[in-house]
Model the fold of this input.
Amino acid sequence: MSPDLASSEPLLTARGLARHYGVRLPGGLMGRRATLKAVDGIDFDLARGEILGLVGESGCGKSTTAKLVLGHVAPSAGEVRFDGAPVPVDHGGDWRRLRRRMQMIYQDPLGALDRRLPIAAQIAEPLQIHRPDLSRADRGARAAELMRAVGLRPDQAARYPHELSGGQRQRVVIARALALDPELLVCDEPVSALDVSVQAQVLNLLEDLRARTGFAALFISHDLKVVRQMADRVAVMYLGRIVEEGSPEEVLHRPLHPYTQALVSAAPSPHAGRRRARIVLRGDPPNPVEAPAGCSFHPRCPVAVARCRTERPPLLREGRRAVACHLAQAAGGGFAPAPLPSAAVSGAAA
Amino acid sequence: MPTAPLPASPRDLHGASPAAGPAPSAAPLATLRGLTVDFDIGERYVRALHGVDLTIARGETLGVVGESGCGKSITWLAALGLLGPGARVGGSAVFDGQELIGMRPRGLDRLRGGRIALIFQDPASALNPVQRIGRQIGESLALHRGLRGRAARDEARRLLDRVGIANAAQRLDEYPHELSGGMNQRVMIAMALAGEPDLLIADEPTTALDATIQAQILDLLRDLQAESGMALALISHDLGVIADMADRVAVMYSGRVIEEAPAGRLFAAPAHPYARGLLAALPDIEGPKRRLETIPGSVPPPHALPPGCAFAARCPHVDGVCETAPPPLRPVPGAPARRAACARLEALVRPPEPAPVLQRQEQRA
Ligand SMILES: Nc1ncnc2c1ncn2[C@@H]1O[C@H](COP(=O)(O)OP(=O)(O)OP(=O)(O)O)[C@@H](O)[C@H]1O
Ligand code: SF4
Ligand code: SF4
Ligand SMILES: [Mg+2]
Done:
């Protein structure tokens, strides 16, 4: 179900969005002051009903982006607009009114739930806060309907979170998030804590509910397989910036940026067989406190050229595709995958 | 298959056939037989491991895969006497001719970290936070190889070098918190190598690491194995990691091995309904996008297992015969190298049927 991008304004826009934190590094008497650039100037749009997948390694800024979108933290620069208006961050009345329309699903369902409340009460909680117009009976009926929608049995209504399995708990979280018919779901690693067999249940559930209710989602995951399954569009982050964007098929089957190429080739798959060719990057992911100058990927990039050390490649867009790499430009215009030398590829079948 | 003579040393094995895996006739390096674990839960014991049979050959990579709580970790912890007093361990675990179950603590201490090494998911918590890296590797070198002083320091530096840590000499004087997660896992691997192990047990060694760092560590393990000929028991919940690394795979469910097969064949055509379900439930990067198949329900808790097959409540093929006793692990019909624990194997893995006669007649007409 691809949303019609031309027909409406995006539901969500981020422009020049950044979040920096002041930190102290070891060194000197009091330590050295430095800036951690968790998110460092990102632009993206999300259409109504669209799912944008956000991928990247730990510390690249995925979760900070989620918090910025939800108004949990204030941007250091730039802004997020939801349905045309800036997202407020003061947790006041404006923010609460907006929060009815955007909801969050976290990685750890147990942490997101109240241990002392039966699950039906937790599912009805947003209704109690935001829909005082509903009678108690109506709220109960709506909670029962939500439980059914996420595949929980009526007899489980009085259960407490610890009496449920991990997958059932995540269903409770999803039911609660959908209670107010949100237009946007922010999902931060929603299935990472679940076993494969349960993960598939939850992914299918999200797909079905989306088909029925049409929510848009920012879907954050380190697992490329999961993102491909869920997303209409994928953005790849590295050190606080978006380095590539496109449809899942484009990004995962014909990655342009050297980092995306490495990430895709490193994703283990039981269908890929044994000892397949893989791009193995040298070095550790760099520290966001001291992001390298120029292209921040250059110390690990197998094809970096002199220019990469000084000149930051801008994120260039062509239609639905975007990439930030000096070498991902095709000779006749447009994009082409940055050419990786065969020396960067290891583990090929003997 | 031709029977190869037992190689003189693990190194020879890999010199002769780097990619071919172990010689099929070689006596296994380690053999687990009927291994059980019962945990003391106050009033009574609950069985968490129900008689695991596994072997691992010299130089071989055995992948152990299964969902959280299925017993992947306790299998090896039990074999090495690492479960503590709350656990009762039964059955047998033989390593190179020596029985480990019931072995004196001193004997086990000598083996662990020496000929059998372990690395875990979270290197930071396995390393001592207040001791310099060099000292921690040095202790292992002193214990297992009698190296001290200059010789130990030189060897520690060589090991850090070997696992791909830059500035090894300087790193020896650093503490674990000064290194990244990937580097700490390299340090753990260096410590494991200090005892020149014949068997490395790696329990989710890359689960806490980012994808690009995981690729580095898996590559390193593979190189080290090819170089030293050590066997690797690789425990992971990630089917992709197992497919990438393992020669042979054991799939566990609810405290039992439910299927065991050469890796390629397991992933191409799993025999056990649970193994099939697991593969069908996994999304993929390649191929056409499809709706995921799900396994309904969830794993039964260890204290409430059904009398028959533990997978029965979730199995699409369940039948009366499944519900009387747990099906034993037995050869898959028509595939003697594979074993599966399913009462209905004969019905499920039917040999390919000959083309129906009717069709041929139609063609002739
Ligand atoms: N010390 C203990 N006391 C009681 N039960 C335990 C103990 N250690 C493990 N168990 C139980 O034994 C079973 C097997 O645990 P094990 O740690 O081997 O699982 P696993 O397959 O390694 O799971 P994971 O993928 O989560 O690491 C689980 O039901 C677990 O809860
Ligand atoms: S800009 Fe240069 S360093 Fe950055 S990804 Fe492209 S080639 Fe590599
Ligand atoms: S024994 Fe029966 S219930 Fe168990 S896996 Fe086989 S068919 Fe399914
Ligand atoms: Mg474990």
